[in-house]
């Protein structure tokens, strides 16, 4: 069941950017995990602003592709602490695993086809 509209998804995208920006300070992340969080905030913001949905500014990335990007990012975030060897940093490991799970769940609940269907109706 796809209960999250593209507009609501956009709010979640901006919330995700702020969470990645705040996490290093609030959680006391180590250097590598903090730098990664800041980089992910920037990348997530760029993808959001470049996507073709209500919050997109440039609209270069179809919203369906935006969805596929997030389908790849979610599982990658879960494995990142182990791949980059900061899995012993408990706060960072738990943060990245939690963010991966949240992105997967939001992705599963988002209607990435809504914008495509709306265009066909017009």
Give structural notes.
By secondary structure, this protein is mainly alpha-helical. The chain has one domain (6-121). It is 74% helix and 3% strand. The protein contains 5 helices and 2 strands, in the order ααββααα. It has helices at residues 6-27, 31-49, 63-83, 90-109, 114-121, and strands spanning 51-52, 61-62. Strands 1-2 form a two-stranded parallel ribbon. α1 runs antiparallel to α2. The model has no long low-confidence stretch (mean pLDDT 93).
Which short descriptors sum up this protein?
122 residues, mainly alpha, two-stranded parallel sheet, 74% helix
Kindly summarize this structure in a few lines:
With 122 residues, the chain is mostly helical.
Indicate the topology.
Layout (H helix, E strand, L loop, with lengths): L5 H22 L3 H19 L1 E2 L8 E2 H21 L6 H20 L4 H8 L1
Parallel strand pairs: 1-2
Helix pairs in contact: 1-2, 1-4, 3-4
Q: State the distance separating the first and last CA atoms.
A: 24 Å
Computed over alpha carbons, the radius of gyration is: 15 Å
Return the structural class. mainly alpha
Q: Mean of the pLDDT scores? A: 93
How is the largest sheet built, in terms of strand order?
Answer: 1-2
Count of DSSP H/I helices = 5
Largest sheet: 2 strands, parallel
Summarize the helix and strand pattern as letters.
HHEEHHH
Give a count of the beta strands, DSSP E runs of length 2 or more: 2
């Amino acid at each position: 069941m796809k209960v999250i509209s593209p507009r609501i998804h956009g709010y979640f995208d901006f919330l995700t950017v702020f969470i990645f920006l705040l996490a290093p300070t609030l959680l006391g992340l180590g250097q590598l995990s903090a730098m990664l969080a800041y980089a992910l905030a920037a990348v997530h913001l760029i993808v959001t602003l470049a996507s073709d949905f209500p919050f997109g500014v440039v609209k270069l990335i179809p919203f369906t592709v935006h969805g596929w990007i997030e389908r790849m990012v979610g599982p990658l975030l879960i494995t990142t602490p182990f791949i980059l060897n900061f899995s012993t940093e408990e706060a960072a490991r738990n943060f990245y695993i939690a963010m991966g799970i949240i992105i997967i769940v939001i992705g599963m609940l988002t209607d990435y086809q809504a914008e495509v269907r709306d265009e066909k109706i017009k």
